[in-house]
C-alpha cells in the first residue's frame, strides 16, 4: 500500500493537532446553536469518515449527526466530475444550524451544491468545515469557515481520502505516485 505513495504531505501527528484545534474553534462558534438544540452535523461520506469521527470527539456539544453520501470522484477520477450521486437530505433541517463536514474543498461544486440544498431545505445557518482546501481557482466559490490545511494542487490519499476506493485507511495524508494514477 505504501509503495503507491510519492511522499507524505501531512503526517498523522499534525493531523491530530489540527483536528483538536478545529474542534476548539467549532465549540466557540457553534455553542449557541447546540444550547438551543438546533445543531445538526452533516458529514459527507465516505471521504470525511475518519476526519468526522476524530473531530466530533472534540465537540462537547449536543447535536444530531445525519451523514449523507455524495459522489463526485467516481472510480479512478482524479478531478471532480460534478455530482454523480447523492442520498437525500435528512428531514428536520428547518431552522437548524447545519455544520457541513467534508474531506476536501477543490472545485467547490459539491459544497456549493449542498449549501444551496440545505438553505432550500430551510436551514437557518450553514457552516462548512473541511480537512483540506486545495489552493486552486474554484468553479464555485464557497465560504468555508473552518479549514484544517491548505494544500497545493496534488492528488492526495489517506485519512479517508481515496483513489478508486483504496488507501482511505492510511493514517497520513500522502501524495499518490503519478504511476499509480496513470
Structural account:
The chain is α/β, with parallel strands linked by helices and 182 residues long. It has one domain (2-25, 38-181): Rossmann fold (3-Layer(aba) Sandwich). Helices cover 26% and strands 29% of the residues. It is built from four helices and ten strands; from the N terminus they run βαβαββββαββββα. The protein has helices at 12-35, 49-56, 109-120, 178-181; strands at 5-10, 39-45, 64-65, 68-71, 85-86, 97-105, 125-134, 146-151, 156-157, 173-176. The two termini are 17 Å apart. The mean pLDDT is 90.
Summarize the topology.
Elements: E1 5-10, H1 12-35, E2 39-45, H2 49-56, E3 64-65, E4 68-71, E5 85-86, E6 97-105, H3 109-120, E7 125-134, E8 146-151, E9 156-157, E10 173-176, H4 178-181
Parallel strand pairs: 2-3, 2-4, 2-6, 6-7, 7-8
Antiparallel strand pairs: 1-10, 4-5, 9-10
Comma- or semicolon-separated keywords:
alpha/beta; Rossmann fold; seven-stranded mixed sheet; three-stranded antiparallel sheet; 29% strand
Number of strands: 10
Main beta-sheet annotation: 7 strands, mixed
Overall 3D form: globular
- Structural class computed from helices and strand pairing: alpha/beta
Given this structure, which CATH class is correct? Alpha Beta
CATH architecture: 3-Layer(aba) Sandwich
Question: Helical proportion?
Answer: 25-40%
Specify the oligomeric state: single chain
The N- to C-terminal Cα distance equals 17 Å
Radius of gyration: 16 Å
Question: What is the helix tally?
Answer: 4
Q: How do the SSEs run, as a string of H and E?
A: EHEHEEEEHEEEEH
Range of strand content = 25-35%
Number of structural domains = 1
Mean pLDDT: 90
CATH topology: Rossmann fold
* Uncertain regions spanning at least 5 consecutive residues: none
